[in-house]
Specification:
alpha+beta; six-stranded mixed barrel; 11 helices
Length: 700
């Protein structure tokens, strides 16, 4: 019984001793021995408040108030701080005099990663050996070691982080940005040389409140920073990525792949009206590590293979490419893209479809600051077909040296198929369309456009500025064999329409396309001719008969003026079309004159209507005034047309007409007096002729 009591007392004393060991053993005296080793390994100043021996849950040590100061070249303050650092060791190896670390636990770490204005990271100097002082301050260099190398030298089964926060601050941009990983979870298993550790990381990215998880393995670990392989699965919210590759001899080769990425799952809001999916993405890259300090940013990473599919509703674009040494090469192809699937607003009145899209792009990166849009990339090959209902438009082009060239062709286009609101009352058919254009900087040039429409031929060319307000423009237009009737019916005229076969030449220039701009700056000259037609809605002979108050004479009541030819030369200036010469030939009359037609459709024309002899005699028979105005058996009527194209007003030029009547009266009086002097007439006959003349002048 005494023996059992003795054993029990011994066990109790042993338990008391073990429990009291953390209070009896002071490990702080070892700070001066081991803290310099840690500082040398990290290349950082280290502060430790307290070190205590731990018995439970495992044998080891707890370091409280552990602080690692930042590199003073970056900032003054802590780089990392821990509420405690627990190090657990294995008992049996310890009894044999060997320290075998089993677990390292970091509690509530707060880590700040900083990228300074020179683009260097403060983590780049962790583990680097301090260099000899230099008379000039130097930018922090790249590491000659790493935390992974240092950690791999410890034979540790488990490294974990319990809670904590990691902050990344970028001060290399004009507007500094900051991101934080909160609710941090970190677990690293089997950190031994020759083994491949397993890694688990979880956190929430702020300010996006985006959960992130990383799971995978890498290794096997060697003393050098080489990884024969690594495999990770990364989850960003609902986005899943896989990362595979290797890092050997200072060369990093990796492949990033994702089955699907939806824009609605991204942590940033994109200016899209509809979601877009990136499917079957794979990205293979090559990089040097550590990055040489003098290497340009564009040379740090080479993308040796890129492939993905952009899916927008029922449309898809397949993208492939590479990027190396500051030059990206991309190709995009699609069998069909519907405008209704595009994730941005396009002002179209009807949906269209792009078919057989193929485009190649060569672009330098990073882009040159202030470069014009056409200088940002070269497009050696661009081709697609625009399908609009039953219409097709084939487009080809390129962008080389800041010059964009486009060609378009179509066998048939119906205006009813166009996705634009056109001021047309009827659809228009365009055939054999051919066009070519060039764009450079703020200038666009239409080298050639030709087409068949309304039974005739159209050809035009010109230039236009691409500035934001009132751009300058100029151009020429040639029309041949155009059928005016169908053309004006398509435009729609309520009061007047002209038929016939037309030809025209026009040269114009101006600035801006709004009505005020056109009124102010539009200028041009031209000429036109119309053969074999009629003016619907206007009968000049009826209007002339009404002005002359013709009675007892029947004229054609058709509300139209038939002509054989209309020819005109005109100029455009200050909102007016100045008709410098107008000639209209008809079976019954010939009209000449000029005037102005405003862009507001106002009319101010003067015409001289010369009637045929037969028609002149017919009208003179019913109008005394017309009889007086006869000259050589023909009637010449000066007519004024004012008002607007919708409501023209017709009247005689009374001043000119009175002058003609006066001249005719003088000639008649002169002839009568000569007859009296010759004795061929009597005073009574002269008196009767005077009465007849007065009746003619007074119209009774």
């Amino acid at each position: 019984m005494k023996i059992l009591i003795g054993i029990g007392v011994a066990i109790l004393l042993l338990i008391i001793l073990i429990v009291a060991l953390p209070f009896l053993v002071d490990l702080n005296k070892y700070q001066d021995r081991y803290r310099p080793l840690i500082e040398q390994a990290l290349n950082r100043t280290v502060e430790i408040k307290d070190i205590r021996l731990t018995i439970w849950p495992r044998l080891g040590a707890r370091i409280g108030g552990f602080i690692v100061q930042d590199d003073p070249a970056f900032r003054a303050g802590p780089f990392a701080s821990l509420s405690s650092l627990d190090v657990g060791v294995k008992l049996l190896p310890l009894l044999r005099g060997k320290v075998d670390v089993e677990e390292i636990t970091l509690r509530d770490p707060v880590i700040t990663v900083l990228k300074n204005a020179q683009g260097q990271l403060n983590v780049s100097t962790i583990g680097a050996k301090p260099q000899a002082p230099s008379p000039k301050p130097e930018v922090p260099g790249q590491p000659t070691g790493s935390p992974l190398q240092t950690l791999a030298l410890f034979a540790v089964d488990r490294v974990s982080v319990d809670g904590g926060k990691l902050t990344y601050r970028d001060e290399s941009t004009s507007k500094p940005t900051e991101y934080t990983l909160s609710d941090l979870e970190f677990l690293l298993r089997s950190v031994h040389l020759g083994e491949s550790p397993n890694l688990h990381v979880a956190a929430t990215i702020q300010p996006y409140n985006l959960p992130v998880r990383l799971n995978g393995s890498f290794g096997p670990l060697v003393e050098a920073l080489d990884l024969k392989s690594f495999t990770f699965n990364l989850e960003l919210g609902k986005i899943a990525l896989s990362l595979k590759g290797r890092a050997l001899g200072g060369n990093l080769d990796a492949t990033i792949a994702a089955l699907e990425i939806d824009t609605v799952d991204l942590p940033v809001k994109l200016p899209l009206t509809k979601p877009v999916q990136v499917k079957d993405m794979h990205l293979t890259l090559h990089a040097r590590y550590p990055t040489p300090p003098d290497m340009p940013a564009a040379d740090q990473v080479d993308v040796t293979d890129l492939g993905l599919a952009l899916v927008m509703g029922g449309s898809a674009i397949n993208v492939k490419g590479t990027a190396a040494k500051g030059l990206a090469n991309l190709t995009a192809a699609s069998a069909s893209i519907h405008s209704s699937d595009l994730p941005f607003a396009i002002p179209l009145t009807k949906p269209i479809e792009l078919k057989d899209l193929h485009v190649s792009v060569h672009a330098k990166y990073p882009p040159k600051e202030g470069a014009a849009p056409l200088d940002l990339a070269e497009v050696p090959d661009l081709a697609f077909v625009v399908a609009m209902g039953s219409s097709r438009l084939e487009v080809k082009g390129s962008v080389l040296g800041g010059l964009a060239t486009l060609t378009a062709s179509s066998k048939f286009i119906n205006s009813a198929d166009l996705p634009l609101a056109l001021p047309l009352k009827r659809s228009v058919e365009i055939q054999d369309l051919q066009a070519s254009a060039e764009f450079r900087g703020q200038d666009a040039r239409l080298n050639h456009l030709s087409a068949q429409l309304f039974g005739g031929f159209l050809r035009t060319q010109g230039t236009v500025g691409l500035g934001p307000s009132a751009p300058p423009f100029s151009g020429t237009v040639l029309l041949q064999g155009l059928q005016l009737g169908p053309a004006l019916q398509a435009i729609g005229t309520d009061h007047m329409s002209i038929s016939g076969t037309a030809g025209a030449e026009l040269a114009i220039s101006g600035r801006g396309f709004t009505h005020p701009d056109l009124v102010k700056a539009l200028e041009g000259t031209g000429r036109m001719a119309v053969k074999g037609g009629k003016v619907e809605g206007i009968n000049l002979l009826q209007e002339a008969a009404m002005l002359l108050k013709v009675v007892g004479v029947s004229l054609d009541n058709v509300k139209a003026t038939v002509f054989s030819t209309i020819e005109s030369e005109f100029a455009i200036k200050q909102g007016l079309i100045v008709v410098q010469r107008l000639l209209m030939d008809s079976r019954d009359f010939q009209a000449t004159g000029g005037g102005t037609i405003g862009l507001d459709q106002s009319i101010n024309m003067k015409l001289n209507l010369n009637l045929s002899q037969a028609l002149s005699q017919k009208i003179a028979a019913g109008s005394p005034i017309a009889r007086v105005a006869l000259s050589g058996g023909r009637l010449s009527l000066p007519m004024l047309i004012t008002g607007s194209a919708q409501a023209p007003v017709y009247r005689l030029d009374t001043k000119m007409f009175a002058g003609k009547v006066q001249e005719q009266a003088k000639e008649k009086v002169k002839g009568a007096i000569e007859d009296l002097l010759k004795g061929s007439t009597t005073p009574e006959d002269l008196k009767q002729q005077g009465k007849d003349l007065l009746k003619g002048l007074l119209g009774r």
